[in-house]
Amino acid sequence: MHSGILYSLGQSLREILTSLIGVPILVDLLMTIICATILLLIMATSALVFTLGERKICAFIQVRIGPNRVGPGGLLQSVADMLKLMDKEDIVPRGIDTWLWVLSPILLLVPSALIYAFFPFDDGVILADVNVGLFLLIAITSQTVLPFLMGGYSSNSKYALIGGMRTVAQMLGYEVPMVFALMGIVMITGSLKMSAIVEAQSDVWFIVLQPLAFLIYIITALVESNRPPFNIVEGESEIIAGPFTEYTGMRWALFFLAEFSNLMCIGILTTTLFLGGWHGPDFLPGFCWFWIKTFLCVLFYQWVGWTFPRARVDSMLSFGWKVLLPIALINVLLTGVGIYVYNVM
Amino acid sequence: MNEMISTLVFYVLAMVILGTALGVVMSRNLVHSALLMTACFIGVGILFFYLDADFLGAMEFMLYSGGVAILVVMGVMLTKRHDGPPGNPFNNNTILALGGAGLFVLVMIGVVISTPAPAGGYVSPDTVNELADMMLNKYILPFEIAATLLLAALVGAIILAKGDGEA
Questions:
Q1: Angle between helices B30-50 and B2-26 (to 10 degrees)
Q2: Residues of chain A contacting B, Cβ within 8 Å
Q3: What's the CATH architecture for B1-81?
Q4: What digits encode the pLDDT tens for the residues A148-159?
Q5: Cα–Cα distance for residue pair B79/B59, rounded to 1 Å
Q6: Which of A149, A273, A343, B26 has an alpha carbon 20 to 30 Å from A28's alpha carbon atom?
């Protein structure tokens, strides 16, 4: 049914496990654990790679050299950073709501890690190909709001609280246009299944059919993941670091990990929803195309992030509600008319 | 084996849902109550998934724990009173409350016992399409009425937010 190296690799692993253990349910469990471990490794590695990548790209755009002391050409900088973060003193501020404060960074990581289960990395290589895939994915990403708010509230700091409130305003405000923009894709595909969405792009990518939705998506994706031109949640010049002002060491690193994991997520989602997923010319296997497109997307998002100045909070919110949402609704209408005309012809 | 794991999952889930729901009522801190309510919503969402109702489960995540809960938490945080002691207002009407709750439990037990369990375990694999079919064909009128009501609420909220002078 499926082809591709990754799929047959998984299949042969399953056969080996079946011959070793024999009980189907245990094999299923073991396979799920292996897949989840691989996904978590991908997530952790992305943070390691993107920290360095971000600093190098930022430096390149701002005509600097960037990290260049640790290792050849500064390659080991993120390893050094990691060691430093582990070694840092764990400061617990006075007057905080301890439970919420401790839970916030941990809970933040859960949805970020969970959505990796819905990404089709190659033909048939997807951990949970559920019927309501895309919708469930958006629903899970919307859960990241509350941990930010928890962190902001429990820190007993005005900067953190303002940051938390901004998170809510921004994420709720931009989720609506994002959902409506993605509606066009669902209408054309006729399914919410992630694999079906990729399958529907085997001939024409959705960036061609849905250019308006693509534009709305890249803006809302930058907002939802707190990327630079829209990172008002942590606007350093205004509110220090927003919800994670009061966190240090590894607790702060968890916020950081979630942020880079989200950056990779929006790269993967752009690839899957608009750029044909793992589809590509035959000379490279599907997962190679997938990662090439994903990294190009991430590069694009970083480029945008370091080029534009940060948006102001009020103008950003009114832009979301008064410009993006109407355009997204018009896109839904146009797509409907388009589908009708196509069916009639 | 499958049956056993399935039952175990259900009881763990039920314990989480009931535990967090109790926490909402018992917690002395209003913000904690609101956050526990979110946890309860997530538990209910997972329960929907357990029953193979994918779409309803995702809806529960999106609307309840993603939208409603956040609004409640924000409301609680913004309306926190700084003069009094923090937390949920408690009172001494324990006996009355016990009576009311007991009555409710009795009614619920009656409802559960008198409702026949649906025969067979068939669940359509594609709940989304069937739901859409029902909403846009059979129940189109209630659907549209609800939509109009929501629109009216939206306009009302804008007028309230703008105040008397400007609107």
A1: 160
A2: 23, 25, 97, 99-100, 130-132, 135-136, 138-140, 142-143, 145-146, 149-150, 153, 161, 165, 168, 172, 192
A3: Up-down Bundle (1.20)
A4: 888 888 887 888
A5: 28
A6: A273
| Nearest-CA distance A117 → chain B (Å) | 15
SS3 A73: helix
The one-letter code for the residue type at A286 is: G
- The structural domains of chain B, with segments of one domain joined by +, span 1-81, 126-167
Secondary structure tally for chain A: helices H, strands E: 15, 0
pLDDT tens, residue by residue, A66-118: 788 887 877 888 888 888 888 888 888 887 878 888 888 888 888 888 888 88
Q: Which amino acid is present at A219?
A: I
Q: How does residue B142 score in pLDDT terms, banded at 50, 70 and 90?
A: very high
Flag if B126 and A131 touch (Cβ within 8 Å): yes
B32: contact with A, CB 8 A cutoff: yes
Burial call A180-192: b when 16+ CB within 10 Å, e when fewer: bbbbbbbebbebb
Reduce the DSSP state of residue A270 to 3 states and report it: helix
- Contact by Cβ (8 Å): B51, B124: no
Per the document, the length of chain B is 167
pTM, to two decimals = 0.82
